[in-house]
Amino acid sequence: MANDKNSAPSAFVWNAGGWFGSQVGSTVWMLILGFVLLSKDALAAWVCFGGFLVLNAWGLYLWRSRERLSVYAGLQRFLAAATVVIALVVVVVNERGASQPPAPGALVSTYLPYWVILAAPALMLLFFLREREANRKRTAEIPQSQS
């Protein structure tokens, strides 16, 4: 696994709570939006449900692949898929007119601005920078006389 002493240095380790908490937490909005849209636009609702299911199935597959996949690679793969799925959900919901600005005092809104698509790529960049910094620190700790 990626957190063994013999594995490549990484800023991340496989952890069930962190993995599934992040996975479900980053996709549950699609499930909620799907239920809200069900009575307004069935197609948009089912796209939301599908996005939720596809990303969680992908995340489960990546979790089960952790013996041969670093957690960093798993995170990047999950976020790449999330970018595509989120873009699909945002475009469908907006193009079908199902995205509405929140009403005053409303508890739930269907408002889905296009900038939401940038959330996963922004996390990919953040995680890349964290991983690169961790690798630099570990490389600097290795004595140069081990040639």
Average pLDDT reading = 90
How many helices?
A: 4
Taking Cα atoms only, what radius of gyration do you get, to the nearest Å? 19 Å
**What is the helix/strand order?**
HHHH
Low-confidence stretches: 1-6
According to DSSP, the number of beta strands is: 0
Structure report:
- With 147 residues, this protein is mainly alpha-helical.
- The chain has one domain.
- The protein is 63% helix and 0% strand.
- The chain contains four helices and no strands.
- It has helices at 16-37, 42-64, 71-95, 119-141.
Overview features:
mainly alpha, disordered N terminus, 4 helices, 147 residues, elongated, single chain
Task: Compile the SSE list and pairings.
Blueprint: H1 16-37, H2 42-64, H3 71-95, H4 119-141
Helix pairs in contact: 1-2, 2-3, 3-4
Quick recap:
Helix content is 63%, strand content 0%.
